[in-house]
């Protein structure tokens, strides 16, 4: 199954299914509720589950809102792509919240 743009690493919703999608400063996109439930609401240090970038003192409600009429891939991230945890030479597009694996399209249903 092909991915249509960014996917929330927490709930696995794609952009047009996300509830109030927001972009972290590293350009990765997540549902606002997912970010809040995992990281709190404001003044917290947030480590992106996709690239590991640490973002300090974020106010989740002030993060850039993203809609599906905008560029679905977002801007080019300043961080290099992350490899799939299965060492298959593909870029990771998904994050397993249970085992913290970063997975490509081919391995998104496989948990370590």
UniProtKB/TrEMBL annotation:
<feature type="domain" description="RING-type">
    <location>
        <begin position="8"/>
        <end position="51"/>
    </location>
</feature>
<keyword id="KW-0862">Zinc</keyword>
<dbReference type="InterPro" id="IPR001841">
    <property type="entry name" value="Znf_RING"/>
</dbReference>
<keyword id="KW-0863">Zinc-finger</keyword>
<dbReference type="InterPro" id="IPR017907">
    <property type="entry name" value="Znf_RING_CS"/>
</dbReference>
<keyword id="KW-0479">Metal-binding</keyword>
<dbReference type="InterPro" id="IPR013083">
    <property type="entry name" value="Znf_RING/FYVE/PHD"/>
</dbReference>
<protein>
    <recommendedName>
        <fullName>RING-type domain-containing protein</fullName>
    </recommendedName>
</protein>
<dbReference type="Pfam" id="PF13639">
    <property type="entry name" value="zf-RING_2"/>
</dbReference>
<dbReference type="GO" id="GO:0008270">
    <property type="term" value="F:zinc ion binding"/>
</dbReference>
């Amino acid at each position: 199954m092909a991915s249509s743009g960014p996917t929330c690493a927490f709930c696995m919703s794609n952009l047009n299914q996300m509830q109030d999608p927001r972009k972290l400063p590293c350009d990765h996109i997540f549902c606002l509720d997912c970010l809040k439930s995992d990281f709190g609401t404001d003044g917290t240090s947030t480590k992106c589950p996709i690239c590991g970038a640490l973002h300090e003192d974020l106010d989740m409600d002030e993060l850039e809102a993203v809609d599906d009429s905008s560029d679905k891939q977002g801007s080019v991230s300043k961080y290099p792509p992350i490899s799939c945890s299965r060492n298959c030479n593909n870029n990771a597009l998904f994050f397993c919240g249970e085992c913290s694996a970063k997975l490509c399209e081919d391995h998104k249903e496989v948990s370590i």
